[in-house]
Specification:
single chain, 4-stranded antiparallel beta sheet, two-stranded parallel ribbon, 10 strands, elongated
């Protein structure tokens, strides 16, 4: 059998990746030794919070070849996910609505990307019979962003996400481990964030504690998705109406002016998740939650965490009687963790209502006395 032309094979693999719907593909080796001290420092600081799996695998995250012995190369791919009608500002500005990170509005990307990576692996295998390969989409301890950066897909920004010069950062990443000595792509020469610290300054909870360093324990995505514990009281008001994830650090990033909307049908927002009314979501029973989130990444947080997140958002929203009534009626049957957040929400709304009433009474007295409104 004739030895494969690896230069041509690499070219063909990238072409096949585009045919499968990936927006870019790059090839790198498995050497992430420079990342190991950074990963260890992050773990030692406890920034992974309750995500024990981050520490459980040790430095394997920086050693892809240990996941699949014989691995020589990593094919890193990205796929845009931004919906055409993202509705960022309209949702965030209305406290009666629930904000869901835009990556989660459609179908669960894990399944879609993994299926297409599998199809790509099978196509490569048809060309190279002795090939060893394995796809990953957040399904194994792999440092996907450093790998993608080495493969030339972009650079890691100060918010720790990958940024592409022509596509911003609204994309998913996936990897295909390969036992082929394919030619390597060159990484971006250097990070192009410059002196910009917009993502650091905009973070609602101050989770980006230093450039390129995120304290997961303060990140809204961690608090609303990964953590199954009560949300810290001091952080609850900072979540606003964000009920599943957060996009603020990406929204403020200047490079996202170049972000392209995705034509992928599976990433189109589901109507019941796109700018939904918080009270409508609060009214879902557990079977309704499971029905409405079938095939969605949201389902994995479970009904109780969903209710916890909604209670916080309702507590940060309008102090009207419909909200008070909905929260009070749910309290008797709520499990302890959710009940705690309901009680916090009720207290928060009552305090806000009292403050608003006090301001109204003061304004009326000022008007009656003929004083300026700002007195």
């Amino acid at each position: 059998m004739t030895a494969p032309d690896f230069d041509k094979l690499a070219h063909d693999i990238k072409l096949w990746a585009r045919e499968l719907g990936f927006d870019q593909a790059g090839i790198t080796d498995t050497d992430l030794s420079l990342e190991e001290p950074r990963l260890q420092a992050w773990l030692d600081a406890g920034y992974h919070g309750s995500m024990d799996y981050m520490a459980r695998h040790g430095m394997m995250r920086a050693r892809p070849h240990e996941l699949l012995p014989g691995t020589l190369r990593v094919l890193s791919v990205r796929m845009n996910y931004l919906p055409f009608e993202a509705g960022f500002a309209a949702t965030l500005r209305d406290p009666s609505l629930g904000y869901i990170s835009r990556y989660a509005l459609g179908r669960d990307y894990h399944k879609l990307l993994r299926a297409r990576l599998k199809a790509l692996g099978e196509r490569i295998e048809a060309r190279c019979e002795a090939l060893g390969w394995r796809p990953f989409v957040d399904s194994a301890p792999v440092l996907e962003r450093p790998l993608a950066a080495k493969a030339g897909l972009g650079w890691v920004g100060k918010h720790s996400l990958l940024i592409n010069e022509s596509a911003g950062s609204f994309f998913f990443l996936g990897e295909l481990l390969l036992s082929l000595p394919l030619p390597l792509d060159q990484p971006v020469e250097k990070a192009q964030c410059g002196k910009c610290v917009a993502c650091i300054n905009i973070c609602p909870t101050g989770a980006i504690v230093a450039p390129y360093v995120v304290d997961g324990r303060r990140c809204i995505s961690y608090l609303t998705i990964e953590s199954d514990e009560p949300i810290p009281i001091d952080l609850r008001p900072l979540l606003g109406n964000r009920i599943y994830g957060c996009d603020d650090c990406q929204l403020i990033c200047p490079w996202n002016r170049y972000a392209d909307a995705s034509p992928e049908p599976d990433f189109r927002p589901r109507p019941n998740l796109h700018s939904p009314k918080l009270l409508d979501l609060w009214g879902w029973s557990e079977p309704e939650f499971l029905k409405h989130t079938e095939g969605s990444p949201i389902r994995r947080i479970g009904y109780q965490r969903w209710r916890r997140n909604l209670a916080v958002a309702l507590g940060n929203g309008p102090a009207d009687e419909a909200v008070f009534g909905a929260l009070r009626s749910a309290l008797p049957e709520a499990l302890p963790m959710v009940a705690e957040h309901i009680e916090w929400a009720l207290a928060s709304l009552a305090a806000r209502q009292q403050g608003e009433n006090r301001k109204t009474r003061l304004l009326i007295r000022c008007i009656e006395k003929g004083l300026p409104d700002h007195a």
